[in-house]
Design a protein that fits this description.
- This protein is of the alpha+beta class and 103 residues long.
- The chain has one domain: Glutaredoxin, CATH 3.40.30.
- It contains 5 helices and 4 strands; from the N terminus they run αβαβαββαα.
- Helix 1 crosses helix 3 and helix 2 packs parallel to helix 4.
- The protein is globular and about 35 Å long.
- The termini are far apart.
- The model has no long low-confidence stretch (mean pLDDT 95).
C-alpha cells in the first residue's frame, strides 16, 4: 500500500463517517459535494469528518484508486465505501441511507 493509500485508509478507518469532497462542509466547491453534505445534514450526522481533496493533490488522485471509484465526493461509513453523490441521493430517497448512518 502506498503512503497516500495508507493515509486514506487511516482516515476511513479512524472515523465513523468520512466524506472526501471538494471544499468543506461549510463551503462546498462543487454541486455534488454540496448535495452530499446536505444529505448528511438531513440525516442528522453529527460526527462527519470531511476531507477537502482540493487541498491535497495526492489524496485527490489516491482516493479514486482506493475504492476504484472515479469521482468525488465519496462517502465512507464504518470503514466501508458507500458511494458518490448520485448513490447517496438514491439511497436517501429510498430510505436506505438513514439506517446506515444511524439516523
Amino acid at each position: 500500500m502506498s503512503d497516500v493509500q495508507q493515509r486514506i485508509d487511516t482516515l476511513v478507518k479512524g472515523h465513523r463517517v468520512v466524506l472526501f469532497m471538494k471544499g468543506t462542509a461549510q463551503f462546498p466547491q462543487c454541486g455534488f459535494s454540496g448535495r452530499a453534505v446536505q444529505i448528511l445534514n438531513a440525516c442528522g450526522v453529527a460526527d462527519l469528518k470531511t476531507v477537502n481533496v482540493l487541498e491535497d493533490e495526492e489524496i485527490r488522485q489516491g482516493i479514486k484508486g482506493y475504492a476504484n471509484w472515479p469521482t468525488i465526493p465519496q462517502l465512507y461509513v464504518n470503514g466501508e465505501f458507500v458511494g458518490g453523490s448520485d448513490i447517496m441521493t438514491e439511497m436517501y430517497q429510498a430510505g436506505e441511507l438513514q439506517p446506515l448512518l444511524g439516523a
